[in-house]
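Worked Example 4.2. Read the sequence first, then its C-alpha cells.
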Amino acid sequence: MRRKQEWARNLEARETLCARAESLADSTDWKTTAAEIKKLQIDWKAVGPVRPNRSEAVWQRFRAACDRFFERYKRRDQIERELAAAAREAICRDLEALLPAPADAAAASPSGPPPAGELVSGIDSAWTRWQKSPPLPREHAALLTERFNRALATIIAAHPDAVKGTPFDTGANRLRMEDLCARLERLLAGPGAAVDQSLSPGHPPRDDVA
C-alpha cells in the first residue's frame, strides 16, 4: 500500500515536470529556457520511481518536450529570422489595409475612407511596430522594407489633409529639413560669413561655375 502511494506521488511530480517542460517547448527565450529545462531534467532524476506500467509513457512525454525545445534551440537563428520576417509581413498587411480602394470598389462601398484620426492612428501604430521589429539581414529585409515604404507613401499621398500637422506630413517635414540645412550652412560658414546660396535646398544649380 505504501509503495502504491509513493508511486502515485512520484507520478504526480513527474507529470508536473512534464507539463512545465511542455509549456517551455516552444519558447524563444533561448538562454533562460535552456537553463530551466536543464534544471527540470535534474529534478526529474531526483524523483523516485513510478508504477512500472506508467514509467515509460511519462518518460517519453517528458523527453519529447525537452527534445522539442533543444531541437529548436539548434535552429534558433533561423527561427528568429522567420519570426522577424513574419512580424514585418503582418505590419505590411495592416498598413496595406489602409490603402485607398480602387475606384470601382470605392464606388460600391458605402463606408468610404476611414476617418482621419483612425487613419493616422493606423499609420502611427504600423510605424511604431516597424521601428521596434527585430532586425533582419539586409537581403531578407529589402523587399519587406520596399513594400512597407510603398504602402506608406501611397496612403500619405492619397490623404494629405488627414496627415497634415502629424509626423507623417511630408510637406512640413521637407520644410523642417530645409530649415535645418540652412542653419547648418550658416554655422559652417562662421560668424559674419556669407552663405553660398547655391548650396541651399531647393535652390537651382548654378550654371556659371567654371
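Now turn to a second chain, presented in exactly the same format:
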Amino acid sequence: MLGSQKVTVARPRGRYVDGGEVELATWDTFASEDLLRQVVVERMLAGVATRRHVDVTEPVGVDGTAQSRSAVSRRFKAATEAALAELLARDLSELETAVLMIDGLNVAGQMITVALIICADGTKVPVGLILGDTENTVVVTDLLADLVARGLRYEHGILAVLDGSKALRKGIVKVFGERALIQRCTLHKRRNVTGYLPVDERDAIDRRLALAFAQPDPAKGLKACRDLARQLEAKHPDAAGSLREGLEDMFTVAGLGVTGRLRQSLTNTNCIESMISIGRTTTGRVKHWRDGTMKKRWIAAGMLEAERSFRRLKGHADMPTLVAAIAMATAPAPVTPTNYAQVA
C-alpha cells in the first residue's frame, strides 16, 4: 500500500531451517489495507466520486492498482460496515456520562436519529443511531433503550439537550424518568418563534429573545420571555404560542448555576449538529440509495470521522459544577414522616 493505492514490489521471503515461512511484521504493516480504507472513507465523505479517486491519488512514481470505481466502492462498503458495527457495539459502561444530545437528519425520506454523549471531563463520544420513517417516540425510545442496554450510566442523573421535538422529550422521560433534566435548544426556539413573524419584525424580536435566554438570572429571563409572549399575543398569537411551548426547558442549564462558556455550549445542539453535518453534506450527493442499511453505514462513517477531530467541550473546566448540580437536582427525595404516604 503506497499513496492510497497498491503497488507491486518484490517480496522478501525467508524460511526456517526446520520448515515454515518466516512471518515478517514489516511486510504485514506495509501490506495492510487499513490505511487505504481510511483514505477511501475520507475522500468519499469529502465528496470525491468513485470515478475520481484515480485523479486525486498521490503520485508514487509507479503504476498502481485498487483505484477503479468497483475497488473503491468495495473498500468504502467494507469500511462503513465496520464503522456501523463499531458504533452500535460500543461499550458505554466505562463512560462517565454527564450530557446526552440527540438529533435527527432526513436521508432520502427517512429519519436517522443519532446520539452523542458528553462525558464528565468534556469529551464527546458518538454512541448510536437508529433509522425510522419519522423522529417519533417509539424510535427514540428504542434508541435510548439500546444505549442503556450497552451500559449507559445515568444513576447520578443526566442532562439531555434536545431541539424542539416533542418525540425526543417523551422518549427521554419514558426511559430515564426523573433522573433526566431536559434543556431545549435556544437557537431552535428563536428560529421557531421568528418564523411566525413578518420579516421586518424578526430581528428586533430575535434580539430580545437572545438577551432573555442569556440573562444570568434564569427567573428574570423566564419572566422576560413571558412578557414578550403577552406582547405578541394580540398581533401574532401563533408566535406567542410557539414561545410559550416548553419555555421552562430553555433555562434548565442556567437554573443549575452553570455560567460562561459551558452554559453557551449546553443551551444549544451545535455539538451534535456539527457532528452530523458531515453526513448531511455527503448524503446529499448520493443519487440512489439501495436500502436503509446503506444510509446507516454512511451516517455512522461520518460520525466516526467527525470524532477524530473532536475537541473537548468549550467550558469543560466547569463540568464538575454541572455534574454535581445534576446529581443534586435528580436525587430521589428522602423519605420523611411528612412525605411517607406520598412516596408509598
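Notes for the reader: The mean pLDDT is 87. The radius of gyration is 25 Å.
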